[in-house]
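Because discrete structure vocabularies remain unfamiliar, we first show an illustrative case, written as a sequence plus integers encoding its fold.
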Amino acid sequence: MITLFQPKPMFGLPNASPYCLKLEAFLRWQEIPFTIQEGLPFQGPFNKVPFVDYNAERLGDSSLIIDRLIQDKNIRYPEGLDMAIGHAFQRLTEDHLYWAMVYFRWMDNRAWPILRDAFFGQIPFPVRPFIVSKARKQARNALYGQGLGRLPESFILERARADLSALSQRLTEQPFVCGQQMTHYDCSIWAVLSQLVNCELKIQLTDVAAEFPNLKLYIERVSAQLGTQWASTDRSQGAFVAA
């Protein structure tokens, strides 16, 4: 049995982190038994969520965990799928589009108060302002280090639009990113797009994503493959098992 550690559900989704959402989707899709416990980044091996306890090991990084499970469970895909395209679009989504989402969640003053209250509202007041200020500074520094945060906001928006346009074109040609069948790359892309399309926290990228209606249809296709409807606000963090 795998124990998946991640934050609580938020904003009408099973998780506000696309990486947590991606890993949980993969576990459900492959029908790998797991339970969920609330976890904080510093408890994991790479100081980030999600992480898992698996075969007496604590493993971190959603992609590394999925790669390990693909190997251990001997998961194989049929010939004819373009796995290189899947790899490339996963990188586009997770290493670029994701950071645009982070920018508009953390740096845009229209979304920031909602995110701040959701993430930090339960922290006692005497220490809350210090923690909030430190967390936002860390996000700003991460965006600057990644490079996207050095650009004007209008440039970030247009680069994100170009990412979404490329995804839209690919998913017009094929039902899933690698071709006719779903792969673990779809879990990654679906998780980030879900944060833009289905999240209760609306940001500027929400409107940009709406310019490409087939992305919502893609989300629905992947959700159907997962075989379940997630009621995030009703889940018990300690007793949710896929079998």
Summary: The mean pLDDT is 93. The two ends are 10 Å apart (CA to CA). The chain has two domains: 2-77+228-234, 83-226. Residues 83-226 form a domain with the Glutathione S-transferase Yfyf (Class Pi); Chain A, domain 2 fold (CATH 1.20.1050.10).
